[in-house]
Specification:
Chain B: It comes from Fluviicola chungangensis. Chain B: This is NADH-quinone oxidoreductase subunit L. Chain B: One of its GO terms (biological process) is electron transport coupled proton transport. Chain B: It is found in: Endomembrane system; Membrane. Chain B: Pfam families: Proton_antipo_M, Proton_antipo_N. The complex is a heterodimer of chains A (about 475) and B (about 650). Chain A is mainly alpha-helical and about 475 residues long. Chain A has one domain. Helices cover about 75% and strands about 5% of the residues of chain A. Chain A has a two-stranded antiparallel sheet. In chain A, a hairpin with a 5-residue loop joins strand 1 and strand 2. In chain A, helix 3 packs antiparallel against helix 10, helix 12 packs antiparallel against helix 13 and helix 13 crosses helix 20. The longest helix of chain A has about 30 residues. Chain A is globular, with a radius of gyration of 21 Å. Chain B folds into three domains: about 550 residues, no CATH class; about 45 residues; about 35 residues. Helix content of chain B is about 70%, strand content about 5%. In chain B, strands 1-2 form a two-stranded antiparallel ribbon. In chain B, strand 1 and strand 2 form a beta hairpin. In chain B, helix 5 packs antiparallel against helix 6, helix 15 packs antiparallel against helix 17 and helix 15 packs antiparallel against helix 20. The chains are: A mainly alpha (about 475), B mainly alpha (about 650).
Chain lengths: ~475, ~650
């Protein structure tokens, strides 16, 4: 049954190309829900003891193994992907793009790549799927993006490609000493600290670009603003989570020796990113750019917390990965809702919509609060655990990263108030369409439920995190 | 019902009210909405009284709801805790809350967002109750941020005026600065004790042989205090509170006078076992002097404010400062006593000002009022009682509670005693000025306003009357031992009974003769000031000058000592500057150009490459895919060999 994880997205990606145009919308949503069904079925089956459940695990060609499987961490990422894709399709419902066969096909290809990344237990497959995800997202933005997208996309492409090459080099470098690319084989290889640092840096470069970590982020705001809304959502909601996942699954377990030398530099860069992103976000005029920099600020904290490599902080970062995926999609939808109705995202031209669209005002406000991680939302639980880890790791780093609490409130409410409050600026502003309402409501509901009862996530991933942490504390070679 | 059943109900009722009004309130009639919101509050209050009765003489009660997070080293629980401290706060919150809900039914009658207002108000009560009833710092933090959100929503309630939303944002952000401090304090506690439960921390601290480094206890207590400065509007984080007056007046009464702003006091009293530790003495000194400075500075600013609500707002800041002075001296019970009486008379004054504003058709400037005492007699009488109580006129509640704090300072810190007396004198001056200018003299408003002048409906006057009665007799709660032999110090005994910590158990009371002397001095001062202000504002009939005619200290007071301007220059401008320049130069030019030039170097590196660089992305993609495939193929061959 697990093979359906591959087959279904592939099937829908191809079959959507031949169905009539009027049916594409519904077909896409049905397809994505089917994938969600499969993921849920996998979750039901999984016995949640922290071990990896392999559904294929055999040697194949030339040291490449066919090892695909999942543990709690992978399943959570799969679930996030499987939930966000239908949400993205539904939020796209009102756009003409939703009728486009190629677009829908690309979304499914994207999903295929993401699923592959999360269940590959072989280094080379991980790399291949990692690269595959780049193609559909690039094409979505290239074909359907804003008119002046080309320069931004080239930048995006060069960045990610350089990062990927570095990762490939590192993979090959480590494989020289291992019989196969199978994750357990790779983990068994030990290095001197110096070699480990170089190799880990290869992975880090690829991840740092995707996350993005300061100063590898300059592709991000441009690409986000020039992509169509669905592309931005895919990028910020799921795609950058690949890199965070990659840090937990690959970078640190493969090179535990490198933690000593990489920990501080990464935490410093990530923490700078937290503050830098937040400060830049404050004065941005384009609403989408505000949330692009906000996203950078938020994920910087996750990256820093992962590098602390402490059980609680990791637990918190898993919660925050889910939370950020949901909230980012919601915020970009809110921006899209405004752009659809007014044709602009420029904060100076907006205002007063709260009066005309009270429903939208409510849900957007709820999102804004979720985005600044107030208690009763999952963001709070995530940030609480992550900041606790950081503070106990280093007080200064913790305090500096903690300023996100303050600065986050500044830019989020500035954007919200400038667009929603003040005197009315448009003759009319239609309230939410059902498709918009559904997405926002599901997101808020999920965020609040997870915020009140985060055990839903933590109970699920903690056993697996424990296993990952244990392998690190006693690397076979040390 | 047992207490463990009552507690969740007390907490949940306001949430249910908020839920009903938030979902279907729009389609209900206004009377219905108001009745639901006020009804749940009243029931909650009755249940709180029941819980209070049964816990008062027995052990504290803990109710476990569910576990929120369980990690390897600690677990965070949603748990409720009832001891005499938390139940006392619950009584204040639900009691005063009910009255203010009732008042709002009349006050907000004509507002389109009626149902929204009551939803937020109920939600606020829910958050505030979580704050006081939680059994650990984690729950406290939930409530702490929750009240901040509700405060934000209610300050910006009239959002079409952008100024209001700015005030709301300012409040939220300044609170968040404090919240960060509090959060770090929580991490430190968690790191040291492995738990955030009050009871467990208290037990650990009070166990024989407990050791903690001075540095750490300093860090914990100062962090908690930073949190308190945000919520309770102390220097340096106090400037949001006067701006928060942009919200509807019942909100100012409930949140920004009676309940939310006392959260910082509650936190400190709750944590008194930490503040009584060896290393925390420095922090207590800091609290003492921060409180003192806040008290005097705010009172000074209140001297020349002409907005009726602004005067009361600075007065609140000043009173809160005095409360922190009490905490800094370790006079926890005295602080809680003053919190209680302050809740009565400050809520009364704010509601009274609301009634005035209501009568004056939304005018808030006291220079345009005058002579209102005959037009709105109930408001006038109750406002007078509030003024007398806060000014420390003998035998009203404020007289006793303030005197207890001042008495404490006389015993230990003579300098603080004189400073507090000065602050009290200022309080009496600006309060009587406010009262006389508003209610005496000739009416200075427009004809239209004069025509409209009217007393509010019963739903508005009834809360005023009840609060006035409480303001008069609230002092009975903790009478000093000067006049009677029995029945004194009730509140002190009450707290000493089952509230954890060595701080509240201190039962020492000053020597009766000294107390009596201090009372006479303070009382006489208040009466004399009342007389002097009467001659100035009534006999001589002088009216506050226009702002541009002010000079010297008057101008400094009217300009709020330029705090906003200084903060703007020191913090706001630099951050905005960084944001703008950072985006332009660093983000735009430096990083961007760096990337572009790397791209150019790659582009120029040889003719061969140039031919491949067709500029068509499809080609690049093709190259990429074939690159991957090539690598795989290469690898397979390499491996086979």
């Amino acid at each position: 049954m697990e093979l359906l994880l591959f087959i279904l997205p592939l099937f829908f990606a191809l079959s959507v190309l031949i169905i009539p145009k009027q049916g594409v919308r519904a077909y896409g949503i049905i397809g994505s829900l089917a994938v969600l069904g499969v993921v849920i079925a996998c979750m039901m089956q999984y016995n949640n003891d922290g071990t990896t459940h392999y559904f294929v695990n055999k040697p194949w060609l030339a040291g490449i193994t066919l090892s695909f499987g999942y543990d709690g961490i992978s399943l959570l990422m799969l679930l996030l992907t499987a939930v966000l894709v239908p949400l993205i399709l539904v939020s796209n419902f009102k756009n003409e793009l939703a009728e486009n066969r190629l677009f829908t096909s690309m979304v499914f290809f994207m999903q295929l790549g993401l699923i592959g990344v999360f269940i590959s237990m072989d280094g080379l497959w991980f790399y291949i799927f990692w690269e595959i995800t780049l193609i559909p997202i690039f094409l979505i933005s290239w074909w359907f993006g804003a008119p002046e997208r080309k320069a931004a996309l080239m930048k995006f492409f060069i960045y990610t490609f350089v990062g990927s090459l570095a990762m490939l080099a590192a993979l090959i470098g480590i494989k020289v000493n291992a019989p196969t690319f199978y994750i357990e084989d790779l983990k068994a290889v030990t290095f001197t600290c110096k070699t480990a640092c170089w190799l880990a840096m290869g992975f880090f470069l690829a991840f740092a670009v995707k996350i993005p970590i300061f100063p590898f982020h300059t592709w991000q705001p441009d690409t986000y603003t020039k992509s169509p809304m669905a592309g931005t959502m895919l990028l910020s909601g799921i795609m950058l989570k690949m890199a965070l996942y990659g840090m937990i699954r690959w970078m640190i377990p493969l090179f535990p020796e490198a933690v000593a030398c990489l920990q501080w530099p990464v935490i410093i860069l990530a923490t700078i990113g937290v503050v830098y992103g937040a400060i830049i976000a404050i004065k941005q005029k384009d609403m989408k750019r505000v949330f692009a920099f906000a996203s950078m600020s938020h994920v910087g904290l996750i990256a820093a917390a992962i590098m602390v490599w402490d059980f609680d902080a990791l637990s918190g970062s898993m919660v925050q990965i889910v939370n950020h995926g949901l909230v980012a999609v919601g915020l970009f939808l809110a921006v899209e809702i405004i752009e659809r109705r007014t044709g602009t995202r420029n904060l100076a031209d907006l205002g007063g919509f709260a009066k005309q669209a009270p429903k939208f005002a409510f849900w957007f406000a709820a999102l804004a609060f979720a985005s600044v991680s107030v208690p009763l939302t999952s963001g709070f639980i995530g940030e609480f655990l992550m900041l606790k880890g950081l503070v106990q790791f280093d007080m200064i780093a913790g305090i500096v990263a903690g300023t996100t609490l303050i600065l986050g409130a500044v830019y989020t409410f500035r954007a919200y108030q400038l667009s929603m409050y003040g005197p009315v600026t448009r003759d009319q502003f239609a309230d939410l369409h059902w498709s918009e309402l559904v997405v926002l409501a599901i997101i808020i509901l999920a965020v609040v439920i997870l915020g009140v009862y985060p055990a839903l996530i933590t109970d699920f991933v903690n056993p697996s995190l424990k296993v990952v942490l244990e392998t690190l504390s006693t690397p076979s070679g040390l | 019902m047992s207490v463990s059943q009552l507690l969740p109900l007390i907490l949940l009722l306001p949430l249910i009210g908020a839920f009903i009004n938030g979902t279907i309130g729009k389609s209900l009639s206004k009377v219905m909405v108001g009745t639901i919101a006020t009804g749940v509050m009243a029931i909650s209050f009755v249940l709180a009284v029941m819980a209070f009765m049964s816990v008062q003489h027995s052990e504290p009660v803990t109710v476990h709801l569910f576990t929120m997070i369980k990690t390897s080293s600690f677990s965070l629980n949603a748990r409720l805790f009832a001891d005499n401290l938390s139940l006392w706060m619950t009584l204040i919150v639900t009691g005063v809350g009910t009255l203010i809900h009732l008042f709002s039914m009349g006050y907000m009658k004509h507002d389109a967002g009626y149902y929204k207002f009551f939803t937020y108000l109920n939600l606020f009560i829910f958050s505030m109750l979580t704050l006081v009833l939680g059994s650990n710092y984690f729950m406290l933090f939930f409530g702490w941020e929750g009240v901040g959100i509700c405060s934000y929503l209610l300050i910006g309630f009239w959002y079409q005026d952008f100024k209001n939303t700015l005030a709301a944002r300012k409040a939220f952000i300044m609170n968040r600065i404090g919240d960060l401090g509090l959060l770090i304090g929580l991490f430190l506690i968690l790191g040291k004790f492995g738990t955030l439960e009050y009871a467990e921390v208290a037990k650990a601290v009070m166990t024989e042989g407990f050791e903690i480094s001075e540095m750490l206890i300093f860090g914990i207590t100062i962090c908690l205090f930073i949190g308190a400065t945000g919520k309770s509007a102390q220097i340096p984080l106090f400037t949001w509170l006067p701006d928060a007056m942009a919200g509807p007046t019942p909100v100012s009464a409930l949140i920004h006078a009676a309940t939310m702003v006392t959260a910082g006091i509650f936190l400190t009293v709750r944590s008194n076992f930490l503040y009584e530790l060896e290393g925390a003495h420095v922090v207590k000194e800091i609290i003492l002097y921060v409180g003192l400075a806040t008290s005097i500075i705010a009172a000074f600013i209140a001297m020349r404010q002409n907005d009726i609500k602004k005067v009361l707002a600075y007065s609140t800041v000043s009173q809160l400062g005095m409360l922190f002075v009490a905490l800094g001296m370790g006079a926890y019970t005295a602080a809680m006593f003053h919190v209680t009486t302050h809740a009565f008379f400050k809520a009364l004054l704010f509601l009274g000002s609301g009634s005035v504003i209501h009568a004056m058709s939304d005018e808030q400037d006291i220079r345009k009022m005058g002579g209102l005492r005959k037009k709105i007699p109930v408001t006038h009488m109750t406002f007078l009682i509030g003024t007398l109580a806060i000014s420390g006129i003998p035998f009203l509640s404020g007289f006793y509670s303030k005197d207890e704090i001042i008495g404490h300072s006389f015993e230990s810190h003579k300098f603080v005693y004189f400073a507090l007396m000065f602050s009290s004198a200022l309080t009496a001056i600006y309060m009587f000025r406010l009262y006389f200018v508003t209610f005496y003299g000739k009416f200075r408003g427009t004809h239209e306003q004069e025509h409209h002048l009217h007393e509010g409906p019963a739903s508005m006057t009834l809360p005023l009357i009840i609060l006035a009665i409480l303001s008069v007799f609230g002092g009975l709660l903790n009478l000093p031992g000067v006049f009677l032999h029995k029945g004194t110090h009730w509140l002190s005994h009450y707290y000493a009974h089952n509230v954890a910590g060595p701080g509240v158990a201190v039962g020492e009371h000053g020597d009766p003769n000294t107390t009596l002397m201090l009372m006479i001095v303070a009382g006489a001062m208040a009466v004399v000031i009342a007389g002097i202000t009467y001659t100035i504002y009534v006999t001589k009939n002088s009216i506050p000058k226009e702002d541009d005619q002010l000079k010297g200290w008057e101008k400094a007071s009217a300009m709020k000592l330029y705090f906003d301007e200084i903060y703007d220059f020191l913090f706001v401008k630099p951050v905005l500057w960084l944001s703008e320049k950072g985006a332009h130069y660093f983000e735009g030019a430096f990083l961007h150009r760096g990337v572009v030039s790397i791209g150019k170097v790659i582009g120029k590196s040889g003719d061969l490459v140039r031919k491949i660089q067709t500029g068509r992305t499809d080609n690049y993609l093709l190259w990429m895919v074939s690159g991957i495939i090539g690598l795989i193929v290469y690898y397979i061959i390499y491996y086979k060999n």
